[in-house]
Amino acid sequence: MKKLQPFWQIGFILLVLIFPAAIWSWGFVAHKWIHREAIRLLPLPLRGFYQSVADSVIEKSTEPDLRRRRVKNEEFHHYIDIDHYGRYPFVEMPRDYQAAVQKFSADTLLQYGDAPWNVARVLDSLVVAMRQNRTKDIIQFSVDLGHYVADLHMPLHSSENYDGQMSGNNGIHSRFEWQMIERHQGRIQLTPNGVDSIANPTAAAFEIILNSYIWADNLLRADTHARDPQRIYKAREDFDDAYYEKLFAVAGPIAEQQMSAAATAVASYWYTAWLRAGRPQLTGK
Ligand SMILES: [Zn+2]
What's residue 275's pLDDT? Predict the structure, then answer.
């Protein structure tokens, strides 16, 4: 992996200052990594198109996080607190949006995160942009779709206890997805699977969330075990090398697995959009 460029380092420091807990996404390193891997997985000729716009698709992968302050309701598209609605496997939540609205109201669905339905909406937009060969929009919707699909794989995007705030693990969200991954990126290897078309985009997004949810507890436990019982952890710098080494022993494989699955899923959603658009020849102009 490349070292962070100075611009990103400054951006990162600013972001940390402005938003002490980055609780709405994978970190910048992870998002770019997932998009880069996803492009590699695509079958030809679609891969050729994505390679021709790879710089934008990779570089903009974090844009949906950065616009959440200026775009209304943006923040709700990155997660779903599925455990708000019941217990695993959450059969009480209808996967169909209209049925879910009837049961819980549109406001509630938005407030606790609408990621699985939003993924399907963005996919539809990407299909239309591909049919019309509008490169700028294809890039934009590919970036958005890839980002939201990647976010579904972050285990703490599936739970009301998204930052460990209900279990004494405050701050675990960014320690896992950001600091740990940046520190140990040289030791992380992604092993994504092949790409597949997706029959039901919303149902598939719920499947991803259910799989993510299974790992949320492990992350919280990994955080607890990584702490030295003799030490007080308050400020960011209290979490030292020893802490991250222990965290990585358990949470590293979870990050590898979830980021690998994310790369496969992102490529599969892009591929599905292209199939639905009728396999257009995208020119990249
Ligand atoms: Zn996000």
Answer: 98
- How many Å apart are CA 24 and CA 42, to the nearest integer? 27
How far, in Å, is the centroid of ligand 1 from the Cα of 141? 14
Give the length of the chain: 285
SS (HEC) of 170-227? CCHHHHHHHHHHHHHHHHCCCCCCCCCCCCCHHHHHHHHHHHHHHHHHHHHHHHHHHC
pLDDT score for 201: 98
Å from CA of 159 to ligand 1 middle: 15
Query: Cβ–Cβ contacts within 10 Å for residue 122, how many?
Result: 25
Q: Which residues surround ligand 1, an ion (CB under 5 A)?
A: 24-25, 65, 78, 151
Mean pLDDT confidence for 41-45: 97
The answer, yes or no, to whether residue 21 has pLDDT greater than 80, is no
Q: How far apart are CA 199 and CA 201, in angstroms?
A: 6
In order of start, what are the domains of the chain with their CATH numbers? 23-276 (1.10.575.10)
pLDDT for 27: 81
Question: 228 C-alpha vs ligand 1 centroid, how far in Å?
Answer: 31
C-alpha distance across the termini of the chain, in Å: 30
- Tens digit of each residue's pLDDT (9 = 90 or more) over 203-213: 999 999 999 99
